[in-house]
Design goal:
Strand content: under 5%
Helix content: 55-70%
Radius of gyration: 36 Å
Number of strands: 0
Structural class: mainly alpha
Length: about 525
């Protein structure tokens, strides 16, 4: 009788189960102040790892003191008194009344411009200061205030000539040099900014804000060591300023000095326990070192004070997912989406958490939505493919694996999974191509060589199948299925002794391999040719 060759196709699929990695996304927080360099915000979630590109933010420019000539009139003393009492709104009202009564008094207009500048009403301040100059009240103080007003209006190109003229009228004036440095920095003329800050440093008393802004300019210029030195000076000069300690922590973390960064962050929190940026940075540092519990505590602290803080919610969801605490991850991702409804990463995180928590339909729906919102989001495609494959949605899984491989052809496990599904769909040529792609990325993958052997076998490429099974065995000598299938291919070539030897090896590795046992038993059965005639 004809011998039936039993090809062993049973194997564990290589499910690519991906947990989203946590990332640190620096939140945008408005700290706009006169003379403060424009805050730079970099989206830290781009690389989807718990690492961050460096941002030095929150550099306060408190050194500059707005100066002005005080009018000798009695009315002037009224708003001056109110200003010194901290009643700026009342002072502005008094000055505005005085301007109505004496519109040609340049001193009153200078005062009003100064007060409006204090309220960050830059447009209003500009009107009053320009009118004062029209009334022939030009001076070094007026030029300085005009320069700062233009900085507040982000018209730095107009601020520079005003501040330069202030220095013509008042040489070696620290405040003018300082503001000129800020204007140059805002225009990305870093060498000139550093030069002006250095001049300020030589002319003014030691000041933490100056050192902080100098650190930012040095950092942006690529002079990180000098930036750290300046930042340390800022902390020494103002040890209770949380911003300066926070900035020092960011700088040290960017150099790999995690211990120093942690110390700086903890110092910042000692000064201001509600400093959200510091808690977020420290949480990122702790999570990177494996202290997820500590990181979660900081994220929770931020969320309790700022329920709409996206970063804290998103990163907490990521950590919970990494811990397989998907029930806790779901509400965090949902909270993140309530803040940023169109955020694809949060939607993908929610979908994966739901799938792992047993909510397969909702999970797949949200993963699919994430892929549509951001077709370049590789993690969403990988997780969607995994979820669909587990749920038996093979056609959808094939599409998702294919999309993932188009984004990153080096995802060798994705190629194996794609090959597995295409093999099951009896599309053996495409299956072979997928396995070949996986091998091109990882030649030492026993699973890929084994799968390729299966595909070649079904395509009638017996010699190629034998070569692939031999490679699979060479990588993994414990692969009972590969020994059995090698025996099948050898038997096709009528190399019966070699085939039987492979079946025996399959049983040595796995005595319960039913296919190998049946294949070997066939040789002990009488065939029609062996029967008596």
């Amino acid at each position: 009788m004809t011998r039936e060759l039993l090809l062993h196709i049973g194997r564990a699929d290589v499910f690519l189960v991906l947990t989203l990695s946590c990332c640190y996304n620096k939140p945008i927080k408005d700290r706009s102040q006169i003379m403060k360099p424009t805050k730079e915000i970099v989206n830290m979630r781009a690389n989807h790892h718990l690492t961050s590109r460096f941002v030095l933010a929150g550099l306060l420019a408190s050194l500059c003191v707005l100066v002005f000539s005080i009018s000798a009139s009695a009315a002037a003393s009224k708003w001056e008194t109110l200003y010194k009492q901290g009643k700026i709104d009342e002072a502005i009202g008094a000055a505005q009344q005085a301007v109505t009564e004496k519109p040609k008094d340049p001193g009153i207009r200078r005062w009003l411009g100064f007060l409006l500048l204090q309220k960050q009403d830059y447009s209003g301040a500009l009107v009053q200061l320009q009118e004062a100059r029209t009334l022939k009240a030009d001076s070094d103080e007026l030029r300085l205030n005009l320069g700062m007003t233009y900085i507040g209006l982000n018209q730095n190109e107009k601020a520079i000539p005003e501040l330069e003229q202030a220095l013509v009228l008042h040489k070696n004036w620290a405040e003018a040099h300082y503001n000129l440095g800020i204007a140059y920095y805002n225009m990305n003329q870093l060498d000139k900014a550093i030069e002006q800050y250095r001049k300020t440093e030589s002319q003014a008393a030691p000041n933490g804000a100056l050192q902080n802004n100098l650190a930012l300019a040095l950092l942006k210029k690529g002079r990180k060591t000098e930036a750290i030195t300046a930042c340390r000076k800022a902390v020494e000069l103002a040890p209770d300023n949380a911003e300066y300690s926070y900035n020092l922590g960011l700088l040290l973390q960017s150099t790999g000095d995690s211990a120093g960064a942690r110390k700086a962050y903890e110092k910042a929190l000692a000064s201001d326990t509600n400093h959200a940026d510091t808690r977020l940075a420290l949480a990122e540092l702790l999570s990177a070192s494996g202290d997820d519990a500590g990181a979660l505590a900081h994220y929770a602290a931020v969320s309790s004070k700022q329920p709409d803080n996206f970063t804290a919610r998103y990163n907490a969801g990521v950590i919970y997912s990494r811990q397989a605490a998907f029930g806790k991850a779901i509400p965090e991702f949902q909270a993140a989406l309530s803040i940023k409804p169109d955020d694809a990463e949060s939607l993908a995180g929610l979908g994966w958490a739901q799938f792992k928590a047993g909510q397969a339909a909702d999970g797949i729906k949200n993963l699919d939505s994430a892929c549509k919102k951001k077709p370049t989001l590789l993690s969403a495609w990988l997780n969607l493919a995994t979820a669909c494959m587990v749920e038996g949605k093979n056609a959808e899984a094939i599409q998702a694996w294919d999309a993932a491989l188009k984004l990153d052809s080096k995802q060798h496990a994705a190629a194996i999974n794609l090959g597995n599904l295409q093999y099951q769909a009896q599309d053996y040529a495409k299956a072979a191509a997928a396995y070949e792609k996986s091998i091109s990325v990882n030649p030492n993958s026993a699973e890929a060589h084994y799968g390729l052997g299966l595909a070649y076998s079904m395509l009638g490429r017996t010699d190629d199948a034998i070569a692939q099974y031999n490679k699979a065995i060479g990588i993994n000598p414990k692969s009972s299925a590969a020994y059995n299938n090698l025996g099948v291919e050898l038997e096709k070539k009528n190399q019966l002794d070699q085939a039987k030897a492979q079946y025996r090896k399959a049983l040595e590795v796995d005595p319960n391999n039913a296919d190998a046992k049946r294949n070997l038993e066939r040789f002990n059965r009488p065939t029609a040719a062996d029967s008596p005639s």
